[in-house]
Design brief:
- This protein is 25% helix and 26% strand.
- The protein starts with a helix and ends with a strand.
- It is elongated and about 70 Å long.
- It has a 9-stranded mixed sheet.
- A hairpin with a 2-residue loop joins strand 5 (150-155) and strand 6.
- It has helices at 2-10, 14-21, 25-34, 39-45, 51-56, 83-90, 95-98, and strands at residues 78-81, 103-105, 115-118, 133-139, 150-155, 158-166, 172-176, 185-188, 192-202.
- It has 2 domains: 2-56, no CATH class; 78-202, Ribbon (Umud Fragment, subunit A).
Length: 205
């Protein structure tokens, strides 16, 4: 596979191909000898290469599965969204993501995550600190809450990151902060516009 990429992108010149990827020519030679390579790096740098071919070896090398309907290349990974984009994304408006210059991250352990969000404030300490990045999976609005799990909730109060517990009745949920300085509060379900389950966290040391 690597040899085919070298032939296509640099007419067989391994040094040029290595330079295009930002690695050494020796690394490219080792990839060819061992029939292995950094798939994410190649996908990022080699415009037009098919993701399915790259990761499975099946289909055409130059596929269209990594382009959107406008002909622009789809970003690789999970978008890190600014807070003002999240409400739209939670409600299913994926165009909201396209309006922002988002960073994208490939985190294989976050299976099913659809977006990343940076935590702000101290209300969820010590579980989540300001600056942490949480990975989230959108859920249908009529999803049954798994009590005591952490969700990102779109509401009339904005986007809220909180642990969800049962409310005083079937029409309410209780939102709980990890930081005990913040009192729990109830939110009417009819004020909840969208929800996403937190499935992971990234923390910088």
């Amino acid at each position: 596979m690597v040899q085919a990429l070298v032939e296509h992108y640099t007419e067989g010149n391994k040094a040029q191909f290595a330079n295009m990827l930002g690695i050494s020519a020796q690394t490219v030679s080792a990839w060819i000898a061992r029939n292995t390579f950094d798939a994410e790096l190649v996908y990022t740098k080699c415009r037009g290469v098919s993701a399915s071919w790259l990761f499975t070896g099946e289909g055409d090398m130059l596929g269209r599965d990594n382009y959107d309907t406008t002909g622009e290349r789809k970003p690789f990974g999970i978008p890190l969204l600014p807070v003002d984009a999240i409400a739209g994304v939670l409600s299913g408006n994926d165009m909201q993501v396209m309006e922002y210059d988002c960073e994208y991250f490939d985190v294989p352990t976050f299976k099913g995550a659809e977006f990343l969000m940076r935590v702000s404030g101290d209300s969820m300490q010590p579980k989540y600190y300001s600056g942490d990045i949480v990975a989230c999976k959108r859920l249908p609005i009529d999803t049954f809450f798994q009590w005591n799990r952490v969700y990102v909730i779109g509401s009339e109060q904005g986007v809220i990151l909180k642990r969800v517990r049962q409310g005083s009745d079937a029409e309410h949920i209780t939102l709980v902060s990890e930081n005990t300085d913040y009192a729990p509060f109830e939110l009417p379900l009819n004020k909840v516009h969208s929800i996403a389950l937190v499935v992971g966290v990234v923390r910088a040391e």
